[in-house]
Amino acid sequence: MIPVNSVAGYAAHGRITIDAEAINYTGTSTNTAVCGGIDACFTGARRGVGGSAAASHSTGAAVFQNQCLIRATGTSGDSRRIVERATTSSVGGGSAMIVYAKNNGDGVPYYRLWDRVAGAWGTEATANNVGADIHWLVLKFARTRNEAILGSMNSSGQIRVQVWNGDTLTWGAPQLIATVTANNDNLYRGFDIDYETNSDRAVIVYNDNTNSRFAYRTWDGATLSSQTTVNIPLGAKPRWIETAANPHSTSNELAVIMLDRNNDVYGMRWTGAVWSNMGSGVAWDTDAADSNFRPIGTVWESTSGRALFVWGSNTNRRIYHRVWTGLALSAPQFRDVAALGGRVTWLRVVRDPYSEQIVSGVMNGGRDLNTAMWSGPPGDGWTDHPEHDANTEDGNDRNFDIVFETSAVRAGQAWLMWGGRVAGRSTKRRL
């Protein structure tokens, strides 16, 4: 028996993953007598399957499910196979979606679905037109509904959202939530979206074209809320906004970090009900790296409930970070990356789903690409890797990305991919 806070949205039987351990189960229950006084549980559990090892897990550890189950019924010559999709999987059974724009300025987001059976991308299809040439797209998936939400910003500075219904394979009508026009802020991605882990409610955070504040709305699967604004100690509008959701199954927390055109940095925490300044009511840095690029990022450690905020400094090679411990916000700490020849222009932070490790990737205007590994508590430090490339494809755009593998048998392994100087070629490296 595996006690949990809820079994809503999970398959009636199948496999779950907690930390690095895969567990098969034969049923679910909300009977406290069956669950040992707990409100919900998975029953008939078989631990450490699929090559994983049985292990202890902390209270609040996330429970993942991304499985399709096939059950045979009947007798020989009259059997039926019933396919059951766990509703915690995205795009219908754990497939994938890619969304992109074209350079023809038609204002249409295009997408393809990954066919896991065929091992290939499906036919190109279109979401709904968003009115003008697309500058930015953000796509995020619900955990307990077969749903995704797509945010877009076009060349007119219009920020819209539209919702994908994975059961009907249709997109809802785009909703205009803001128009950003001043100071060329439409060139920068002044919005982001994340789903709260526990409630599975999407929170859309965005620049509403007003100095010293940001705005947000929520989507609960049925209704898009009206706009609410939050005052912040920045002198201008947030050009860049990055959000991240706390992965704990019981949490509705988000972290957000923002950068304005004056190169001021500020961060906040969403509790699930209100925005908290975590005890800091002033800008965190008034001399950050160039806001013409995106030198900011935020991420949560996978099991500790701590959030990490990271940004580049106007000082060459310097990177700052702060940690929200769950109780307090640490003072800014910095490190200098010796191999990075100039200021940070592009920054990305990605968490390991099975540990407190985080990988940070940074580029500078000279096209240097470097990464470092965050150790998490108790040491709380960065270990720089040898420089990956001193001459990547393009210094004006973020031409790299990082992802951790999610399979329990490959826990702790991350991939770095980037564009090289050879035309038509990309490079990858396992970290």
Provide a descriptive summary of the structure in words:
The chain is an all-beta fold. It is 0% helix and 44% strand. The chain has strands spanning 2-4, 14-18, 21-25, 27-29, 40-43, 46-49, 63-64, 68-73, 80-85, 96-100, 110-115, 120-121, 125-126, 134-141, 147-154, 158-165, 170-171, 175-179, 191-195, 202-206, 213-219, 228-231, 238-245, 254-260, 265-270, 275-276, 296-300, 307-312, 318-324, 333-336, 344-351, 358-364, 369-374, 382-384, 400-404, 414-419, 426-430. Strands 14, 15, 16, 17 and 18 form a 5-stranded antiparallel sheet that branches. The chain has a 4-stranded antiparallel sheet with strand order 6-3-2-7, with no helix packed on it. It has no helices and 37 strands. The two termini are 36 Å apart.
The residue ranges in which pLDDT falls below 50 over 5 or more consecutive positions are 75-93
Structure annotation, total helices: 0
Strand percentage lies at 35-45%
β-strand number = 37
Q: Which bin fits the share of residues in helices?
A: under 10%
Tell me the span between the first and last alpha carbons.
36 Å
The rough form would be described as globular
Cα Rg: 22 Å
Structural class: mainly beta
Q: What characterizes the major β-sheet? A: 5 strands, antiparallel
Summed over residues and divided by their number, the pLDDT gives a mean of 89
